[in-house]
Input
Amino acid sequence: MAGVDVGGSSGKRRTVDSEVNMIPFIDLLLVTIAFLLITAVWTHMARINADAQVPGKPNEDPLKLEDVKPKYLHIEMRGEEKFVLIWKQGETVVNTVDVPRKEVKIQQGRVEVIRFPDLGDKIQEEWKTNGQHANASDPVADQAVLHTDNKTEYKYIIAVIDALYGTKRDRTVNGKTEKIPAFNVTFSIN
Amino acid sequence: MPVQKPGRRLFHFIPLDFVRRKVSGGGNRAVVASLSLTSMIDFLVVTVVFLLMSFSASGDLPRPKGVTVPKAENTLDMLEAPVVSINGSQILVDGLSAGNTRAIEESDRLQKIEELFNLLKNKREMWARIHGNDKPFPGVVVLQVDQEVKAIVVKSVFQTSAYAGFPNISFMVDSITKASGK
Output
């Protein structure tokens, strides 16, 4: 039988030479591998959050009501040539930016991954200028509203939401800082 | 120890292939093959470590036929919530039929899907019966949508879920690692 020699023995003293029994050891390793292979999750499912509760949950502390009206970022994705980013404060349009619709397609197996890197960069830039909730102690995220036509395929919607969630900010809770998405997204019904 | 006359020796540089063949099985292929135990154990240990590191108990959700979820980078971990599955022909809530996708696409208008609304409402009531008033209702629903489904269906399901008391809506995606260069 195979063994691992870890030293020699001398005289009548208790031997310091011990052996690891290789057969159960290899059996254990093989069973562990078989278990892990069977229970392995090869495709990791995750989620992208959206919120239908707009403008958000009621403010719990009325004393903290801000005088400043919230700004919403409206993303218009109905055009075939461009996206339009519109910052609105109430009914007032604060800023409008056109972003050329340059999609990057990556084939991954059966799934075609659509990405809009230019849109992601522009949203980040816009949030730095117009975002209202950049403070790390602020629990509220800026609100984005997605406008899409009825025929748009779901994968394009996810690509735009993914680009939107690429903009991150710091959030400190109990002295611990982590990166969270700067926006919360919802759909426009029209 | 007496000095003895050396016996016959084989020199290493003499290529006595027929002797080597004889020793290793008489010209036939050897029956006994040795396995290097050290390298085998090394390999097994490395495999176990790799599998343990990549093991994850979350994100293991069954995917019904006909649903290919899109891939995304900026994702959150999955959570326990009712799953609304939408493929090219039907809408299912935890496996139960809750509407027809084609009918919504053909009507081309935003609508409240009655079957879906009733099923989700039942789920909310069931949750309230189990948990009572001690815990606030999370109102989370996970939409497992095929990537080819049209936006009108997604918007209708989104709106119906909100009406049924599930305003926190998550879209299930296949998580991919962030690309280094965009």
About this structure: The first strand of chain B starts at residue 71 and ends at 72. Helices of chain B lie at 17-23, 37-53, 101-107, 114-131, 151-163. The beta strands of chain B are 71-72, 76-77, 83-86, 90-93, 96-100, 140-145, 168-175.
